[in-house]
Amino acid sequence: MRKTIKNIFKFFLLLLVAGIIFIAWANYNIKKDSAASVSYNIADVPEAKTALLLGTGKTLSNGMPNAYFYNRIKAATALYKSGKIQYIIVSGDNSSKDYNEPEDMQFALVQRGIPQDKIILDHAGFRTLDSVVRAKDIFGQTKLTIISQKFHNERAVFLAQKNGIQAFGYNAEDVNKYAGLKTNLREYLAKAKVYWDLIFGVEPKFGGEKIIIP
Q1: Gap between the Cα atoms of 156 and 145, Å rounded
Q2: Which Pfam family, any one of them, does this sequence belong to (predicted)?
Q3: What is the dihedral of CA 78, 50, 36, 186, to 10 degrees?
């Protein structure tokens, strides 16, 4: 009995070690493959008709403003006003009546001088995978500038390229590493899950009719 318990313990320990190695490999590989396609410098960003602004909530659970949100809005505004993009798809979660990332982003962008008719709402961007794939399948974009923080852009650009999209990530300003600790830890698992989604051909939760961007 003791020997059986010992063998079971060894088996789960090996699984744990293998999982840690896989997570580390996935993170390293995605960062390496996307390194040449993400930048904090607008001058590095190639011209594209459309940008994809990835959603997050405008406030934290404690009611305080979410720096991730406002830094992405600032980056999207700067990129649009630089002339590098013509349209912005704002893609995020709208899973409940009182939570609407796309409309919150649209409102914030309009406040900063972006014409409303240059902003396209995608209410079904429940995950990064959904936002990226829908940009191609629903909105017909095969070349995108993706806007988010660097850690997020690395994953989004990698996903886009694996789904036949020519993508470049414009990095919004990062958040204090202590304030963003939980998000950064979660990102390690999210990068590993990218490979699961690719292997099993996971698709967006919702499809829909195609929307033409002029």
Answers
A1: 10
A2: DUF218
A3: 80
What is the number of other CB atoms lying within 10 angstroms of the CB of residue 184? 15
Q: Are 142 and 166 in contact (CB under 8 A)?
A: yes
The CA distance from 78 to 94, in Å, is 25
DSSP E strand stretches across 86-165: 87-91, 119-122, 143-149
Contacts of 85 (CB under 8 A, 6+ apart): 47, 48, 49, 50, 51, 79, 145
- Going from the N-terminus, what domains does the chain have, and what CATH number goes with each? 1-200 (3.40.50.620)
Q: Exposure of 160 by Cβ count < 10 A (0-12 exposed, 13-18 middle, 19+ buried)?
A: buried
pLDDT in tens, 154-178: 999 999 999 999 999 999 999 887 6
